[in-house]
Amino acid sequence: MTSPVASQGPAAPSSSIGQSPARPASGAPGGPGPDIAAESRTDLARRLLRVARPVIAPLGISVVCRLIALLLGVALFAVGGWAVAGRAGGEATWSIAATVWVLVAMSLAKGLFRYLEQFSGHYVAFRSLALLRTFFYDRLEPQAPAATEGEDSGDLLSRVTKDIDRIEVFFAHTLAPGLTAIVAPLLVLCWLGASVSWWAALVLLPFLVLVGGVVPRLGEASTDRAARRIRASRGELAQHVTDSVQGVREVLAFGNQEARLAGMARIEERIAEGQQTSSRVVSARRGLNQFLLGAGMVAMLAVAAWLHARGDIGTAQVGLALGTALGSFAPMLAVEDFAADLDQAFASARRVFAVTERRPLVAGPEARGRAAAESDGTGDVLVDHVAFAYPRPAGEGTDEGGPGASGPGGPSRPVVLHDVSVRIPAGRTTAIVGASGSGKSTLAALIERMWDVDAGAIRLGGADIRDLDLHRLRELVAYAPQRPYVFNDTVRANLLLARPGATDEQLMRVCRQVGLARFLADEPDGLDTRVGEMGERLSGGQRQRLALGRALLRDAPVTILDEATSQLDRATEAEVLAGIRAATAGRTLIVIAHRISTVADADQIVVLDSGRVVETGTYAELVPADGRGPGALASLVRREARPA
Ligand SMILES: Nc1ncnc2c1ncn2[C@@H]1O[C@H](COP(=O)(O)OP(=O)(O)OP(=O)(O)O)[C@@H](O)[C@H]1O
């Protein structure tokens, strides 16, 4: 179904949701965000450094310490070569004892600076990882619940743990080695030119450039592609394992073990292929570098011998030149050492930023350049000519197999709600009923502003909910879903989520209102009863009551129950709903129900059919006393009365 829906509300975006996305463009709230997959490494490095700005100072210390340690390393070879060769050639250099003492002192100093470099480097790395994790969660939170709903939780977990861990390489083993690989050889070459010969410096230069600048980039495109495949497959693997563990009952019950294992083996195979590609290139690069090191030394030996034969330099300087050359390769070889890990670090950074740079689907008025409005707080809800189609899931169509760069929208999105208009009066109970898939939960989600309407508007207490501050909106609307998430904690902690300062008396009152008090009375720990992972120690009905308790604790002007009592038997459901209605007396209650009998006494019943409002009225108005009649509610009632 892809019919165009015209914009009707004053603040509504004007577009046809069936054919073209009514979503804001990239960069705006709800837009897809920048294309991280296409960003260069320099852009990614900039992003990483922006997040790690608070640790730039210790990073500077790490770079300076590494530079000093490297120069001391080169000097060790140079001084050793100079002293030994000088003595062998009968030239006046230092005594053996003096040389040994100088070398020992330099080694100690080198060790100290190395320690300082490592210490500050790792401090930077671990602080940066902590900053990145906080940044990740901070950016993810405003995207929820719409953009994170139905997302691969295993893959997200893999991004926030494994991928962020991988980025450690960038902070701990890349920045300092990378910067010093540029500065150290420049200083060494200048010193070699000034103290031995510019010919020697000139001969050494191309070897250093090749080892540190050219070889590490050979095959970079293929190692980068392999690294991206590996990181994406690792995310997939995490998701596969999460699914297999959480669905272990189904896997065993349907004898699906072999298929799950085969699926895992296929992902592992892809990871192994990526690793092989990477190690082939890396091995070739390392072999080539060793060759260049040897060739560089031979070239240096040749030029030193030539200069010595011409009488330009003495034997000690020959030793100095050779020692310096040997020492100067160390910082350049380090580039190749981190280059391979850097591929993985950047691939991980892409996966992290693909999530963090996604724009939230709904944004507060300030982010949309509008002044915040205020609701009159009455709980009066007006759904005004609303049309809506779900955005395509984020990440659909990306090459990374997860949430990512491509945004919502698309050529054709099925319209779920068509020109829906309903007035939900303050302080009354409104029931929304209709066949499965008719759009009841979608309407509730739009009132809660999980998504924004494509056309029309929803007003709460007179204000368009898009103009209300998001925190304020959450205070005004409490929500109990059909499948609530229950934290692996106590009943008390799960309830306090809704109101952290609630007293035990308030908690017990809502427990009584939702029929949870009897269960708690039988538990020795009462409110401190632990509910287990995903509330596994509770029945489905008890889990729902816990969610209802949370919604009541919120004490909001509007409470939405989205089939929140569906797992209770008919009699209990009626009992619990009566308790909730008493508790929310004078406030707006919106009940989405499957069983019409339980909401027959609602002040208003709205019937949805295929995303359209087909009837509105009281039960008595819509269903004749004999139960006959052509009305939509009457036929739903007859269907419900039919034996299953
Ligand atoms: N997150 C989503 N993304 C894409 N489509 C969705 C999403 N949630 C629901 N839909 C689709 O929207 C339509 C309406 O679903 P909705 O959940 O609102 O119906 P409902 O009347 O509440 O159904 P039920 O009574 O079975 O819960 C369905 O076709 C469904 O497939």
From TrEMBL:
PROSITE patterns: ABC_TM1F (PS50929), ABC_TRANSPORTER_1 (PS00211), ABC_TRANSPORTER_2 (PS50893). Pfam families: ABC_membrane, ABC_tran. InterPro entries: AAA+_ATPase (IPR003593), ABC1_TM_dom (IPR011527), ABC1_TM_sf (IPR036640), ABC_transporter-like_ATP-bd (IPR003439), ABC_transporter-like_CS (IPR017871), P-loop_NTPase (IPR027417), Type_1_exporter (IPR039421). The keyword Transport does not apply. GO terms for molecular function: ATP binding. Residues 18-27 have a biased composition (Low complexity). The chain crosses the membrane at residues 55-80, 92-113, 169-192, 198-219, 288-307. Residues 1-36, 393-414 are annotated as: Disordered. Its main location: membrane. It is found in: Cell membrane. It is a multi-pass membrane protein. SMART domains: AAA. The keyword Membrane applies. Residues 61-344 form the ABC transmembrane type-1 domain. PANTHER family: ATP-BINDING CASSETTE SUB-FAMILY B (PTHR24221), ATP-BINDING CASSETTE SUB-FAMILY B MEMBER 6 (PTHR24221:SF654). This is Amino acid ABC transporter ATP-binding/permease protein.
